[in-house]
Amino acid sequence: xxxxxxxxxxxxxxxxxxxxxxxxxxxxxxxxxxxxxxxxxxxxxxxxxxxxxxxxxxxxxx
Length: 62
Prior knowledge:
By secondary structure, the protein is mainly alpha-helical. The chain has three helices and two strands; from the N terminus they run ββααα.
């Protein structure tokens, strides 16, 4: 599903950045994509996705 319609950033891309590149916050997502740079409506949804990914990432690390 698209999280950022303005720049076509999907939830899959956000999860991929979190797991593969260790991006854990919105600032990191913004560095890798244009998420939140136009209307900003997507930032809340992106934060929720990152919160869901953090526990998964911690399980994989151990």
